[in-house]
Amino acid sequence: MEDKYNLLKEHIGKVVTLTDEEFACVSACFIYKNYRKSDRIFKEGENVKYIYFVLSGLLKLYYTDENIKEHIVSFAMEDWWETDVSAFYTNANASFTLACLEDTELLCLSLENFDRLCNHLQKMERFFLRKSIAGHIGSQQRILSFLTSGAKERYEQLIARNPALVQRIPKLLLASYLGVSRETLSRLFS
Amino acid sequence: MEDKYNLLKEHIGKVVTLTDEEFACVSACFIYKNYRKSDRIFKEGENVKYIYFVLSGLLKLYYTDENIKEHIVSFAMEDWWETDVSAFYTNANASFTLACLEDTELLCLSLENFDRLCNHLQKMERFFLRKSIAGHIGSQQRILSFLTSGAKERYEQLIARNPALVQRIPKLLLASYLGVSRETLSRLFS
Lengths: 190, 190
Hints:
2 copies of one chain form a homodimer.
Chain A: H1 2-13, H2 20-28, E1 30-35, E2 40-42, E3 50-56, E4 58-64, E5 70-77, E6 81-82, H3 85-90, E7 97-100, E8 104-110, H4 111-120, H5 122-147, H6 151-161, H7 163-168, H8 171-178, H9 182-189
Antiparallel strand pairs in A: 1-8, 2-7, 3-6, 3-8, 4-5, 4-7
Helix pairs in contact in A: 4-5, 8-9
Protein name (chains A, B): CRP-like cAMP-binding protein
Keywords (chains A, B): DNA-binding, Transcription, Transcription regulation
Domain Cyclic nucleotide-binding (chains A, B): 14-117
């Protein structure tokens, strides 16, 4: 278990340097949970209790339209944060569903503990500011991908930003994320 | 001019309370600029020097596709912040263009001064964390609007979140934002 928290410590350490005592306060605010492939962490319409730091595995955040078609908003793998941000921060019901594409281990932070960390540790407020900016950038780039008409350009944008992710995601889901057919994706890959 | 900065002071005061001395430090970090209707503040491919706080007027942030068609990412009016966040925070070239739909007055904050404020005033770091989370929420909600297939649902989402904005935006642009024809929009309005 200590190993698990080391991943979080290294991750935070890229932005701010915490003492062992400070990190003990931080790690005490997280809950460890593990899920199996295909598990749903929260569903559209539900309460979203946590923001999730991915220790291992792979997540997809998606929207289900009225024809029960899934539209992928984002993927998240090790060292990434994920949640339905609107639902989490404003106590609204989830617009999206978060599900596991692989067996997944998460560290879960409640809004109460998020606020507690920000109030008690200035360094964590700085850390979350950096992560929040990164999340905002990621979402604006996802908007760009919806607007970019060329499949090749969308694919190249994704590869440039997240090469490791592209290798990891099942091809059918990658095609769905990019809004192309499986055949078009194969052509782009080659 | 002092009046202008009062708007910023009130805006920040909704999140954190600054002393007059602290606010003097903050306001010294901003540059005032005014633009005429139809002016472009930055264009796709350009450097993005500032994040903008809108004092008066109305902005549109948009992407131009290969057929020179404009796709609206977001609008911003008084009391809102706007920029191409990826370009601003990472010193990349803009993917979007920011233009004025009305005569517009802005307070402009450079990345250098953003960092300076975060480093010198913990309260401003807290303020920017709240604004960054709000920006992230706004972008994830915009993603939702792209994925929501029903025009009526998209319209209702926008009305629920930003009633004042809906009244203010020219109908043709509102239709473009919602991805519907002008006729469909008129039907929704009635």
